[in-house]
């Protein structure tokens, strides 16, 4: 039970960080907030942000598997990375946009997360983005 509560707390902080960062990007045009969302994903996965964001999609999945948190956070990480991809596209950085989307798809495929499902905790972000 304690581990479950801890995971919920970590996910709550993650969702808050990603939501604030991405609303700043999409609502205010503040592209300097993109790394904040990436840092939140890396923190959720218990990885160094610079390393995690540079990994090829399958390598990121491997690191998630090795850390033991993959299955429990896959849907959250995949959704966030997909939105970060959208943010990079809006900023005109197609190569990073494609990498983030590829990472999101690899995570979804490896851990059985639904690409089209918005995690309940991200509904406020989705509403704020007009989804």
List the helices and strands and how they pair.
Blueprint (H helix, E strand, L loop, with lengths): L1 H27 L5 H11 L4 H6 L2 H11 L2 H22 L2 H18 L11 H6 L3
Helix pairs in contact: 1-2, 1-5, 2-5, 4-6, 5-6
Could you provide a short overview of the structure?
The chain is mainly alpha-helical and 131 residues long. The protein has helices at residues 2-28, 34-44, 49-54, 57-67, 70-91, 94-111, 123-128. The protein is globular.
Structural class call reads mainly alpha
Number of strands: 0
**Radius of gyration from the alpha-carbon trace, in angstroms:** 14 Å
First and last CA, distance: 34 Å
Q: Work out the helicity level.
A: over 70%
How big a fraction of the residues is strand? Answer: under 5%
Order of helices and strands: HHHHHHH
Tell me the major beta sheet.
Answer: none
> What is the overall number of helices?
7
Oligomer kind: single chain
Shape: globular
What is the residue-mean pLDDT, rounded to a whole number? Answer: 93
Give start-end ranges of low-pLDDT stretches: none
